[in-house]
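sanity check this record:
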Amino acid sequence: MEKVFHIAVAGNIGAGKTTLTTSLSKYFGWKAHYESTENNPYLIDFYEDMKRWAFNLQIYFLNSRYQQILKIQQGENTVIQDRTIYEDAFIFAPNLHEIGLMSTRDFNNYKGLFDTMTSYISPPDLLIYIKAGIPTLVSHIQDRGREYEGNMSLDYLKKLNKRYEDWILSYNEGPLLVINADELDFKNDPEDLGEVIDKVSSQLHGLF
């Protein structure tokens, strides 16, 4: 029986990735790797001046997630990862480029680096995508009260959501499970969390 080593959780800002990562890691006994936000040296600067810091921020995230994946693939434990390396390259970086916050020169440089890095790693054994509408995302963002996220516009969230939907429709790197956060409140409702756990368990059994 082949062991599953890498489960990744994807979703827009405020979708509930960290909450679900924590809950699943506790239930299944997996080690959790979280997105680096508290110690991120660029994040606050980015939200204050997106054009100046967009490229720096994306390179930081790319490097951070690449290091996480290398540790996962070299280790012996099952790990659940909060956000994937693909989201940076297919959603956030191209969105910043499209809206004029990252130059074409910087974007091409970034994309080339991503292509080189991902040629040396394997995709997740299971990708869990948290699908969420704008009202759900806004509610979650307001609830957690991160000051630097207060500058985000609804248009920015909408553009990201559209890119997420397009990416998931074309995702073919491996097994995929979609969780609808508009219908399942896995943070506050134990029954909804139980339903998500059941879905994950069924998907994992199908991988063996």
